[in-house]
Amino acid sequence: MPGNPHTSVRSRQVAAELRVLREQAGLSGNEVAKRMGMSPSKISRIETGNSGLQIEDVAALLGLYQVPAAKRDELLDLVRRSEERGWWTRQPGLPQLWRSLIDFEAKATRVQNYEAMFVPGLLQTAEYTRAIIQGVAPTISEAELDNLVASRMARQAVLTRSAAPQFFAVVDEGALRRPVGEPGVMRRQLHHLLGVAGQPHVTLRVVPTAAGAHAGLRGPFLILEFAEEPALVHVENHGTCLFLEEEADLADYRLALGTILHVALAPAATAELLGTIAAELG
After folding, report:
1. 170 strand-pairing partners
2. Alpha carbons 65 and 59: distance in angstroms, whole number
3. Is 165 found in the same domain as 33?
């Protein structure tokens, strides 16, 4: 059954959270339906976003799952504002920001990512991730750093599952030449990129420095496409996560990606450049 094309990103996020909360409570959809006096199909529609969320239903489910008050209020507020288009959130830790993105990536059939400053997150090695986080947040504790690296590595699991999405990554050459971490970190990261780029569901292209000014200079972004739900754009910067769902926004970012690809190297030339940069690092 096709998803509701008018379901907002807030509703989709609440639906995903309700599924996770049910699983954490150790309940099946049938068990929840029986306890709530609902049909199993209604529970399924609520959790997949194919049914409009009613605040009374969501509140009852949150009560059944014994969700803490703060979390319950947060989700109910999202339901109340579900008719608003677009969604942004600010969280104190990257794992919280990434959680919403991980939920959407897990359902996506295609992910398109442009990065100007870093290697795309789904293609980073653990040591590269650690060095990047230490560089941008030098005051965090070792425990926090371990948590952040583990969160990034967990996010990458989407590319290793049996039904992995098509991942289309475009990265600026400057990100590949920027020294990150101890000697050897960037060389190993580049060899990792060469390895993953050979997978059938991964396409990697580099925008060479010689391209000069181009549309990607406006900043990084992700376009997520789904089989039965509208596409989303994800933008993240300085602790703020933004999801865009308006057709005009999607059209703008798709146009930007097309413009960037016009100056990007083809996959074969990209692999050659990666090899050259890696060789320069010794």
Report:
1. 114, 205
2. 10
3. no
